[in-house]
Amino acid sequence: MQSKKTAILGAGISGLATAFYLKKLGFEVSVFEKFDRPGGQILSVKESDYLLDKGAFSGIETTGLIPQLVEELKLTESFIYAGEKANRKQVRINGRLFEISMNPENLFKFPLFTFRSKFRFFIEPFIPRTRKGARLAVAEFIKKRLGDEFLSYIIEPFSSEVYAGDTSKLSIEAAYPKLFSLEQQYGSVIKGFKKAPLQQPVSDKFEGSGRLFSFTDGMETLTSALGKNLGYRVNFLNEIQKIEKNVKGGYSLLINRKGEIKREDFDLIVSALPAYTLADAIQGLSDGTSQTLRRVEYVPLVQAHVAYLKSDLGETLKGYTVLIPAVEKKEVLNITPVSEFFTGRCPEERILFSVIMGGAKHPDVIGMEPDNLKKIAINTIKEIYKAKDKPVFVSLKSLKKAVPQYNTDYYDVLQKIAAFEAENPGLFITGNFLGGVSIGDSILSSFKTAERVARQFPQ
Ligand SMILES: Cc1cc2nc3c(=O)[nH]c(=O)nc-3n(C[C@H](O)[C@H](O)[C@H](O)COP(=O)(O)OP(=O)(O)OC[C@H]3O[C@@H](n4cnc5c(N)ncnc54)[C@H](O)[C@@H]3O)c2cc1C
What we know:
Blueprint: E1 5-9, H1 13-24, E2 28-32, E3 44-47, E4 50-53, E5 59-60, H2 65-72, E6 79-81, E7 89-93, E8 96-100, H3 104-107, H4 115-123, H5 138-146, H6 148-162, H7 172-175, H8 177-186, H9 189-195, E9 212-215, H10 220-230, E10 234-235, E11 238-245, E12 251-257, E13 260-266, E14 268-271, H11 275-281, H12 287-294, E15 298-309, E16 321-323, E17 332-337, H13 338-341, E18 350-358, H14 370-385, E19 393-404, H15 410-423, E20 427-429, H16 439-456
Parallel strand pairs: 1-2, 1-14, 2-10, 7-16, 14-20
Antiparallel strand pairs: 3-4, 5-9, 6-9, 7-8, 11-12, 12-13, 15-18, 15-19, 16-17, 17-18
The chain binds flavin-adenine dinucleotide.
Residues 9-15, 32-35, 40-42, 55-59, 239-240, 272-274, 277, 301, 303, 399, 402-403, 431-432, 437-439, 442 line the site of flavin-adenine dinucleotide.
């Protein structure tokens, strides 16, 4: 039997990994990418003496597919794990730093918790189980079970690190599936924590170590290697404009190739495009699905890379990520001393920070002057680390639509997509707005999508 001619749309980690797995399963794949490089949001660049990951500076090994992929792509020698510091974080509240970890024992002993919170923790096991998880916001769930201090000091900082999100909009079930399932299984978050700590990796066939990783030349090593593995099958500077059904029972793509519009036919299509781009491409196929996709919220981020001489930092540097919760009302969401996690990011005597600003609560960062944003990043580092002098390096990157939000309408989006796929056999949708926003989740979703395609269209 002839193999199915399959188009994969988008060459971010989701599209590349899906194409890689489908190719292994015997599909004839062609990837279409708007820009001239693979990687999408994953971008590692050299600027003077610095190696900058403009986007994800690391991944978490949440699935065993990651080490497997690293081995298959022959990247073992450049694959690096971060040290112990990566598992610890600090939260900055009222100008002071407090250490937190995902160890539940420590979470409930956070020093700013008043008697009110301690009483909440005591009664939490007696609060009835949640019934409408999907449509329940994180803030509502946490306030009800653990109180507003737990929300402000623990959950909000983590939510802004992962989603840069607003806890009054994020869905507890979609954004914190493990936390929610503990509550559902044991009838209590606290009982669940005791029985099955959160940092345990998912114990299915995709089990991962849970460790933070990168590569000696940055995260883009992974997407570049996937791009090389796929070779001629990746078509750069090919912007997808429309997906249409054709008379042969397959699909036609309308592709903008450097200003020229071409039509190409395929048996199968897998979209790994952002929701808002896919919304435009499928408008003719389903106006309703297109509108649902357009409503998926993406929040903006600005990332500043700032380097200092180590000798100019007054505060003893613990080397942990510092999270700044929403109660602080700051544009800066978190600061990570990336060169403390992975070597080779900057010269030995310096330290390189990644400062993330914006998110759901500060979308205005996008309209701000670059000098102003630099000042905000530098002043925050000065306050936290008592930096004496000026930084030796600053670089900015703005992303208008950086992180898709897993809001309380997430399950409506899933339902709409499932119905759309059923009405359009051979058309599949994957990407970071569906199965999790992290690199590990994107790889796992890609693997599952490839398996789904192969199950429905065996080669
Ligand atoms: C600042 C930042 C920091 C992050 N940090 C981390 C981290 O530390 N750890 C972690 O695990 N994750 C992190 N993430 C998240 C993670 O990097 C992303 O979720 C993931 O890389 C998204 O991959 P994707 O392939 O789904 O989407 P994308 O990377 O957005 O890929 C979509 C691709 O489609 C292409 N495209 C768009 N429109 C068209 C079109 N019309 N035709 C053809 N191609 C098109 C785009 O150019 C792009 O290449 C971070 C994200 C950001 C923004």
